[in-house]
Amino acid sequence: MKKFRLFTPGPTMVPEDILLAMAHPIFHHRTPEHREMAIEVCELLQYLFQTKGHCPIVTGSGTSAAEAVIVGCLSPGHKAFVPRNGKFAERWAKVCKAFNIEHTTKDIEWGYGVKVDDVKQAMDADPKIDTVIVVHSETSTTTYTDVEGIAKLCRERDAILIVDGITAVGAIPVKMDEWGVDAYITGSQKALMLPPGLGFAAIGERAWNRIEGGNMACYYTDIKAYKASVDTGDAPYTPANTLILGTRMALRKIKEQGLENIWAETASMAKAMREAAAAIGVQVFAKDPVDSVTGLLVPEGVDEGKLRKTMKAKHGFHIAGGQGDLKGKMVRFSHMGYVDRFDTLGAISALELTLGELGFKFDMGAGVAAAQKVFSQS
Ligand SMILES: *Cc1c(COP(=O)(O)O)cnc(C)c1O
Fold first, then answer.
1. H or E element in which residue 161 lies
2. Going by CA atoms, what residue is nearest to atom 14 of ligand 1?
3. Which of 72, 257, 270, 313 could form a disulfide with 223 if both were Cys (CB 3.0 to 4.6 A apart)?
4. Is the CB of 204 inside a 6 Å radius of any atom of ligand 1?
């Protein structure tokens, strides 16, 4: 029987036991059962983000949690720096625009992460900047940004750092408290191997102080309302409790496996994919590649649409295309969540078979061999 594998960088595959955990009769949320579950999930989220901060759950995709944090931290009088190195970074600048939040941006060439110097220059030029928003893993360009370095600078300048960790948290090293990040955001459908529908934030003390003094016009995404929920397990509005049931199982599984082990395995899968690409003469797009998702440039003479279609229809691998200017030029493979090295070897094999069918000339099997070599050494 043919098997289908979802290799897009969100949503990602959900393990069978988590799917079954969510196939649960509906229960009421103003009950001890719900509160107990919600409190356990908040504690597990603290492990996930590596923080002692509060971790509210917002019903909505990752963008809802990000919007809540941005709006909460940026009342009139504050100013943000939002460097744009991809589609998601652009989104956070758009959120600022939508809420009339004072902000400046800098366009960074796609394929590169945001550098500490980019932030430093912006702050030197404009002392009003007291908040920085960056994307740890820019999924659209498959690039990595050094959050630890930027956090250090933000501490020195007494600025608040908000990080979109939607394809970083649970995939690559994230150490919120150790690095001094004020707020991290993630969503359910990426590295947490859950269906779409939940946004998670981790908020440190400095960010909470900002939020509590804030006065932006919003209601459902007013993150202040969620603070009590973290201590009591009582959500302000009806929570998506069957999804939270799945979250509890996902986070228990992540804790059992250990974040360090997951980070190492994600890095191995990404390295295997990059080495496989090099072995068959396919270029990795990013100059600062991130380990949670790999973007490959479609070789000249190969039709991107046909490549993705063949991968899916013939070989069962649903991969993603490029976004924005990279549409038609790039394909992306996820290394997040419920995916292992054997799925990854399969994806590389399917890519080789597909490229062969589409007339690309290369040494068939060299990619799989290069990937196997990486796995044999890790
Ligand atoms: C997927 C993604 C988002 C958007 O999340 P939604 O859950 O679709 O709202 C934001 N940032 C990054 C880096 C992402 O990968």
1. strand 160-164
2. 166
3. 72
4. no
**Spelled out in words, what is the top-level CATH class assigned to the domain 16-257?**
alpha beta
What spacing in Å lies between the alpha carbon of 310 and ligand 1's midpoint? Answer: 26
State in Å: Cα 142 to ligand 1 middle: 13
Question: Which residue from 59, 142, 164 has its CB within 8 A of the most atoms of ligand 1, so it is best to mutate?
Answer: 164
SS3 content of the chain, % helix, strand, coil (to 5): 45, 15, 40
Ligand 1, atom 6, residue with closest C-alpha: 62
pLDDT value of residue 230: 80
Per residue in 212-234, pLDDT tens? Answer: 999 999 999 999 999 877 888 89
Rounded Cα distance, 119 and 134, in Å: 10
The token duo for 72 is 């909460």
Residue 229: predicted pLDDT = 78
Q: Cα(370) to centroid of ligand 1, in Å?
A: 31
pTM of the model: 0.98
Please state the domain extents for the chain: 5-10+259-377, 16-257
Q: Which ranges of the chain have pLDDT less than 50?
A: none
Pick the CATH number of 5-10+259-377 from 3.40.50.80, 3.90.1720.10, 3.90.1150.10, 3.20.20.30: 3.90.1150.10
Atom of ligand 1 lying closest to residue 165 CA? 13
Predicted pLDDT of residue 56: 95
Q: Which pLDDT value is given to residue 227?
A: 83
Amino acid at 169: V
